[in-house]
Amino acid sequence: MSDRNFENLVHEHGRQVLNTALRVLGDANLANDVHQEVFLSIWRRWPSYNGQTNWPAYLYRTTVRKALEAARQANGYRREVPAEREWDDRRPDGNMRADELQTKLVAALAKLPAHQADAFVLLRLEGLATTEVAAILGCSPQTARVHLHRALKRLSRELRPCLG
Q1: Based on the number of CB atoms within 10 Å of its own CB, is 118 exposed (0-12), middle (13-18) or buried (19 or more)?
Q2: Quick one: which of 14, 39, 110, 101 has its CA closest to 70?
Q3: For the residues of 53-113, what is the DSSP string, one character each?
Q4: What digits encode the pLDDT tens for the residues 6-38?
Q5: Hey, how many other C-beta atoms are within 10 angstroms of the C-beta on 150?
Q6: How would CATH label the architecture of 3-75+96-163?
Q7: Which residues lie below 8 Å from residue 72, measured CB to CB, with a gap of 6+?
Q8: Chain centre to alpha carbon of residue 117
Q9: How far apart are CA 52 and CA 155, in angstroms?
Q10: Structure pTM?
């Protein structure tokens, strides 16, 4: 495959990769790193790809894996906290800020088995249909739903202390 094909791939799917990484990580800097790493890993193996690759599926799965890997490697990873704190005054408990909850969610996702994390991110964060997720994960729609159910159970246990 030609260098021009690679440029087209980045142009056509680059925003999807970046947005997926950003939804998973909640941090623009880490998402940019993941974006670069996804396409760098493809470039390194570019001559071995054939015209049969399902790029949207491959990129979703690779991006989710690399984003969760980045979260695991960060070990104690903390999102950048904006200078101005936005509190929801309607919540009397002082509420947990969205960025803190995002950080805890990323840490909890990083602990899940890969297939469960993939199913959660693709179904809940990306909003893909079950049939699309099944195709990406290489399983049946029922199996994708089971992975999501198990992920939700584990995330619920992990995040329960954060949610009160």
Answers
A1: buried
A2: 110
A3: --HHHHHHHHHHHHHHHHHHHHSS--PPPPSS----TT-TT----HHHHHHHHHHHHHHS-
A4: 999 999 999 999 999 998 888 899 999 999 999
A5: 16
A6: Up-down Bundle (1.20)
A7: 110
A8: 8
A9: 36
A10: 0.72
CA neighbor of 102 nearest in space, from 67, 61, 133: 67
Which residue reads 């469960």 in tokens?
Answer: 116
Count of CB atoms within 10 A of residue 63's CB? 26
The C-alpha angle 19, 23, 24, rounded to 5 degrees, equals 120
- What does residue 97 show for φ and ψ, rounded to 5 degrees? -65, 150
Domain boundaries, the chain: 3-75+96-163
pLDDT in tens, 62-81: 999 999 888 888 754 444 43
Q: How far apart are CA 26 and CA 51, in angstroms?
A: 33
Nearest to 60 by CA among 136, 113, 3: 136
Q: If we measure between CA atoms, which residue out of 73, 79, 156, 78 comes closest to residue 110?
A: 73
